[in-house]
Design a protein that fits this description.
The model has no long low-confidence stretch (mean pLDDT 96). This protein is α/β, with parallel strands linked by helices and 275 residues long. The protein is globular. The protein has a single domain, classed as Rossmann fold (3-Layer(aba) Sandwich). Helix content is 38%, strand content 13%. The protein is built from seven helices and seven strands, in the order βαβαβαβαβαβααβ. β4, α4 and β5 form a beta-alpha-beta unit. Bound molecules: nicotinamide-adenine-dinucleotide (NAD). The site of nicotinamide-adenine-dinucleotide (NAD) has 25 residues, from α1 and α4.
Length: 275
Amino acid sequence: MRNNFDITGKVVVITGGSGLLGRAHAQAVAEFGAIPVIGDIDLGPAAGILDEIHKNTGIKGDLVELDVTSSNSIAAALEQLTNVHGRVDVLINNAALNPSVSNKSDDSKEWSRFEDFSTDVWNRDLDVGLTGAFLCSQIFGNHMKENKHGVIINIASDLALIAPDQRIYRVEGLSEDMQPVKPVSYSVVKAGLVALTKYLAVYWADQGIRVNALCPGGIFDNQDIGFVNKLSELIPMGRMAEPSEYKSAIVFLCSEASRYMTGSCLTIDGGRTVW
Ligand SMILES: NC(=O)c1ccc[n+]([C@@H]2O[C@H](COP(=O)([O-])OP(=O)(O)OC[C@H]3O[C@@H](n4cnc5c(N)ncnc54)[C@H](O)[C@@H]3O)[C@@H](O)[C@H]2O)c1
């Protein structure tokens, strides 16, 4: 049974790997022997993350500059990685824009509200979160198809499954039309990733490629205490997640332990979507 979780030597590309959750995915796969590759448009934190992983696990990870909105950039990253490692075994589509819902607005309008939501922000969010996953799945997936094996994991969200409860973003004293909300683009990107997961799982089922989604709940990252309390009340377990609480699921989805699983959404949210 333990051998099923062994991913020794697998090359795992994590888009948005420099971010809060991406670095936890990198640590997770390294702890089980895989080679994490941080693929990010911002590689600033990447060397530090890889040093830490090397110190903790003895695994030497890799990094690659990657803009998920550009097919040229993704193809160049794949070429670089196949030159160095020979192949890519796992793709984690993790990059997304996560606008923090702001408490203050100096403008005459609140940007996040649906009534005046700009197509610029809509297009930018869909470009990174959804088109980015489409392009990476296409380019890395074609490579996996040639190798007749591969795993794709799409990082969705509990908000792929339920609507945001906009009451938790409310700010005392603001008029209704100035109240910040979770943007519509976030829900659409995440629901789109679930559809992409199911589509590709079936499309490549006979090519040795498994495609699953992880739907994480909100991660505590020193947000405003009022927000944390309001969100925690919506979660049966009464608290937000720690970044490390998704690590086992990532290893499970990467490994042979999930070999009969494709097209599924693994929801880990403290029970939020059950209520
Ligand atoms: N943080 C949460 O509470 C939470 C909850 C549920 C789901 N998620 C999802 O988990 C994933 C990671 O979230 P996070 O909190 O770590 O976000 P983050 O903002 O910390 O990291 C996102 C990373 O994506 C990178 N990125 C942005 N545009 C890119 C591009 N064009 N090409 C390549 N990389 C790009 C950024 O540089 C950044 O390193 C996201 O898909 C997010 O929606 C997060």
